[in-house]
Design goal:
InterPro entries: Anthracycline_SecMetBiosynth, Glyas_Bleomycin-R_OHBP_Dase, Glyas_Fos-R_dOase_dom, VOC_core. By secondary structure, this protein is of the alpha+beta class. It has two domains: about 120 residues, 2,3-Dihydroxybiphenyl 1,2-Dioxygenase, domain 1, CATH 3.10.180.10; about 120 residues, 2,3-Dihydroxybiphenyl 1,2-Dioxygenase, domain 1 (Roll). Helices cover about 15% and strands about 40% of the residues. The chain contains four helices and 16 strands. The strands form two sheets. It has an eight-stranded mixed beta sheet with strand order 2-3-4-1-5-8-7-6, with helices on one face. The protein has an eight-stranded mixed beta sheet with strand order 10-11-12-9-13-16-15-14, with helices on one face. It starts with 8 loop residues before the first strand and ends with a strand. The mean pLDDT is about 90.
């Protein structure tokens, strides 16, 4: 499978206290299947998730109980070491230095100037998603920030993104397109929203991962039945119907149903 251009989301994982419970939750919610325990020791304790036999995500045990229970998004890069230098130069932080993961690739964690954490992935034998933008797989990510005057220049300098402000989003929202593409909705791979009115004052800057679904309301109902909760009930946006969900261990994510045509 071909690799991903720099700055394109290429993988997601959930850091959980109980991976087996996570497999039950997401297995029923999205119909995901998982590797048998120990099927691929190169991945360590990760459980790779598949939709229709194609890799879509991973579930991983938290190395420290004090770590947050979260979904992480990883951005592709051909050189994780060089990208970490740019992140520091632009006012971000490197949370975890690049570490080779056998032949699979090289991983690092970073944070933007407001503290929103994201991953970097320099693909080897594992470039990233085998399925995306289809039902039950990753489709979008956005960072929730407080100061766009700091955050927008950071990402656009680090990754070379072209930005587009969306007037029809009903809020201050900016999408990002990879370097070398014409900025706009057709090429956008993620975006920036603002932590504003509906968010608690203590809400930190963070990334939100979206999964595409065929029926937003049914998935939201299923998440609650499985022990999760809704941070935002299903509602319509210009790009479909979405809901914000917290799983039964506290990891937040969103689901998005394509517009009805």
């Amino acid at each position: 499978m071909a690799g991903f251009a720099e700055g394109v989301p290429c993988w997601v994982d959930a850091q959980l206290s109980d991976v087996e419970a996570g497999k039950r939750f997401y297995g029923e919610l999205f119909g995901w299947t998982f590797d048998a325990p120990g099927a691929d020791p190169e991945y360590g304790p990760f459980a790779r998730a598949y939709s229709e036999g194609r890799a879509v995500a991973a579930l991983a045990p938290k190395r420290d109980g004090r770590m947050p229970t979260v979904w992480n998004v990883y951005f592709a890069t051909p050189d994780a070491y060089a990208l970490c230098r740019r992140i520091r130069d632009e006012g971000g932080q490197v949370v975890s230095e690049p570490v080779p993961v056998g032949p699979l690739g090289t991983v690092a964690l970073a944070a933007d100037p407001e503290g929103a954490v994201f991953g970097l992935w320099q693909g080897g034998t594992h470039p990233g998603f085998e399925k995306r933008g289809e039902p039950d797989s990753f489709c979008w990510t956005e960072v929730y920030s407080r100061d766009k005057g700091v955050v927008d220049p950071f990402y656009e300098s680090v990754f070379g993104y072209g930005g587009t402000d969306l007037a029809d989003a009903g809020e201050d929202f900016r999408t990002w397109s990879p370097a070398g593409t014409a900025p706009g909705p057709e090429t956008a791979i993620g975006g920036r929203s603002l932590v504003a009115g509906q968010f608690p004052a203590e809400m930190p800057a963070h990334f939100l991962v979206y999964f595409n679904v065929t029926d937003c309301d049914a998935v939201a109902d299923a998440a609650v039945r499985l022990g999760g909760r809704l941070r935002a009930e299903p509602f319509d946006i210009p790009y479909g119907r979405m809901a914000a969900i917290v799983d039964d261990q506290g990891a937040g994510f969103a689901v998005l149903q394509d517009p009805v045509t």
